[in-house]
């Protein structure tokens, strides 16, 4: 496949998934860049993917913000705590051998995909707000969960949407629609932190990143539109995508350790 078309297509797919289910685009970035676009270094793939994920998340966030789905105070605290973790995790990830990092990344994909298959439990609070009255209850959950998700996000170079959405729901009991929209604030901030870290190390292919962003902006818009039309099929879409994530992750992990 032509490298330009591959990068545009990869960006469009990432944007589509981010707009549709609020996560998953970032976890596909590294496999797409290595296997489809042809970037040889896993570290460069992670840094380049972080650029695309950040800007594509911002594109998706714009649409959700206009619809009033974003819980901004919760997003700000969660993302701020996670950003600190992202910067620490990115430094640890850069210090690891590329092949081993890719193998661990594949294992993470399998774990996240399996977690997506589990049914969600617990009541929801559509009116949850982070205020002076609710802060003593919400902050002890938002801060540590955000920090932990940020560490994983930085280490593996992913936006962390699959971790952020359930993390926000666990911390606040906000409905999934709000968690998907709110998660994009953290996805963008985590991606920006990873981008900064890898860019300073010279591990970003800016030309490929630009192509992915060019494909990702319309992809995100299409994902938001498609998500609205398929709202009743959300669980079915997530299940199918989870199986794809598990399959790709298993392939990466087995390949990294020479099994296949």
UniProtKB/TrEMBL annotation:
Name of the protein in its database record: Probable membrane transporter protein
GO cellular component labels: plasma membrane
Alphabetical keyword list: Cell membrane, Membrane, Transmembrane, Transmembrane helix
PANTHER family: MEMBRANE TRANSPORTER PROTEIN MJ0441-RELATED, MEMBRANE TRANSPORTER PROTEIN YJNA-RELATED
Compartments in which it is found: Cell membrane; Membrane
Keyword Transmembrane helix: yes
Similarity field: Belongs to the 4-toluene sulfonate uptake permease (TSUP) (TC 2.A.102) family.
InterPro entries membership: TM_pro_TauE-like, TSUP/Inactive_protease-like
Keyword Transmembrane helix: yes
Topology of the protein relative to the lipid bilayer: Multi-pass membrane protein
Pfam families in UniProt: TauE
Residue intervals passing through the bilayer: 6-29, 36-58, 70-89, 101-118, 138-165, 177-200, 206-227, 239-259
Subcellular location, principal: membrane
């Amino acid at each position: 496949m032509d490298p330009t078309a591959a990068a545009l297509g990869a960006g469009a797919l990432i944007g589509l998934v981010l707009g549709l289910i609020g996560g998953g685009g970032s976890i596909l970035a590294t496999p797409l860049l290595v296997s489809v676009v042809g970037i040889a270094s896993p570290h460069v793939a992670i840094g380049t993917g972080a650029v695309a994920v950040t800007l594509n998340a911002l594109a998706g966030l714009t649409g959700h913000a206009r619809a009033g789905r974003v819980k901004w105070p919760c997003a700000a605290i969660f993302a701020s705590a996670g950003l600190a973790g992202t910067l620490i995790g990115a430094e640890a990830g850069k210090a690891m051998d590329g092949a081993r990092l890719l193998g661990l990344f594949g294992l993470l994909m399998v774990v996240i995909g399996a977690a997506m298959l589990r049914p969600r439990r617990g009541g929801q609070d559509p009116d949850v707000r982070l205020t002076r009255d609710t802060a003593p209850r919400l902050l002890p959950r938002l801060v540590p969960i955000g920090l932990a998700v940020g560490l994983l996000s930085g280490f593996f170079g992913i936006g962390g949407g699959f971790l952020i959405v359930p993390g926000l729901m666990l911390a606040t009991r906000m409905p999934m629609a709000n968690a998907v929209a709110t998660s994009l604030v953290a996805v963008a901030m985590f991606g920006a932190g990873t981008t900064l870290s890898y860019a300073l190390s010279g591990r970003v292919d800016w030309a490929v990143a630009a192509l992915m962003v060019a494909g990702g902006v319309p992809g995100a818009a299409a994902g938001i539109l498609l998500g609205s039309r398929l709202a009743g099929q959300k669980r079915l879409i997530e299940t199918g995508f989870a199986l794809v994530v598990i399959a790709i992750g298993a392939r990466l992990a087995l390949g990294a350790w020479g099994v296949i």
